[in-house]
Amino acid sequence: MNWFKQNIKGILFAFIIALIATWLGSVLPIIGGPVFGIIIGIIINNIFGKPENTLEGIGFTSKKILQWAIIVLGAGLSFTKVLQTGMDSLSVTIFTLLAAFISAYAFGKLLGIPSKLKTLIGVGTAICGGSAIAAIAPIIEADEMEIAYSISTIFLFNIIAVLIFPPLGHLLHFSDKAFGLWAGTAINDTSSVVAAGYAYSNAAGSYATIVKLTRTTMIIPISIIFSIIVAIKKKKESKVDTTVNFSFKKIFPWFVLWFLVASLLNTLGLFKGNSISYINTLGRFMIVMALSAIGLSSDFKKMIKNGVKPIFLGLIVWFTVAIVSIAVQVITKQM
Question: For the segment 257-300, what is each residue's pLDDT rounded down to a tens digit?
């Protein structure tokens, strides 16, 4: 009961913002609910401030509800469908993932950007924007400011991509399949991929959605790889500094395994009819809630201190991924 009193006001605060953000996202799908959620949260926190009695609940929403959202979204994924329809995009997906991580770390180091922030920008660009950032952030123990900044940076280029990709595709005379593969691997957020794909053509939109589905499943291996890296790092620290309390069980992202279980249950046909649509809707709304809470936890003044370098890094990584996607298609004769 004490937990309920401590958290309910903050949870409800994020819930109300998420409702508004989701409605705005339906009106302007190019931007999407997640973007509106974090922007509204940032505006409220930095202009008006948030009530003191909402702090606990906002923290709970930004962390726990965020993890639950990822599990719920997993229930809307079918590995069978991904394997059947996404194999053609696998080579492009792998190369764009590598391009995103390599460029993020190389240019991030060159620009002097903090390790966790450049990791989140790389992951967000490589996999699926806010959802990937949401999955990796608790593993690398990123703070709310780093999460908010990386998500804001990623979504900025999502919006730009939705606006410029379709006309660029027509200018370059891309086929529906080629554009769908390009959009599915070079645009981050699912809503933005779908928006850009269907703006080009129905066939491109359908293919882009399938490619994005394949790409989204990379959350699982990437999360596990990062958890192993963090575990090894913590273990090394424990040998040097006896005050470090190392526990693989505590730092392992168990919510990622539950995400996998949910996906497998869906593949086995546990969720039928309209239930998958409801599950996806619930998962997306929970993501908006979590991102609204992250926005409410962010300090704009601290963001400004980071300067334009993280945004510039986001631009470099995004541009690199877009070019690599086209290059791999040309080399593998998929275009």
Answer: 787 788 788 888 787 777 878 887 888 898 889 888 888 887 76
| pLDDT single digits (tens) 189-237 | 776 787 788 878 878 887 887 788 778 778 778 888 888 888 787 777 6
Is this structure's pTM higher than 0.70? Answer: no
Domain residue extents for the chain: 2-331
Unique residue bearing structure tokens 């999360």: 223
Q: For residue 219, which of 318, 126, 100 has the smallest C-alpha distance?
A: 126
Whether the CA torsion 50, 140, 137, 102 is positive or negative: it is positive
CB 126 within 8 A of CB 101: yes
Q: What angle do CA 288, 261, 12 make, to 5 degrees?
A: 25
User: Per this entry, what is the length of the chain?
Assistant: 335
Find all residues with CB under 8 Å of 24, minimum gap 6, and list them. 31, 33, 36
Task: Report which DSSP code applies to 88.
Answer: G
Please name the residue that has the structure tokens 């229930």.
75
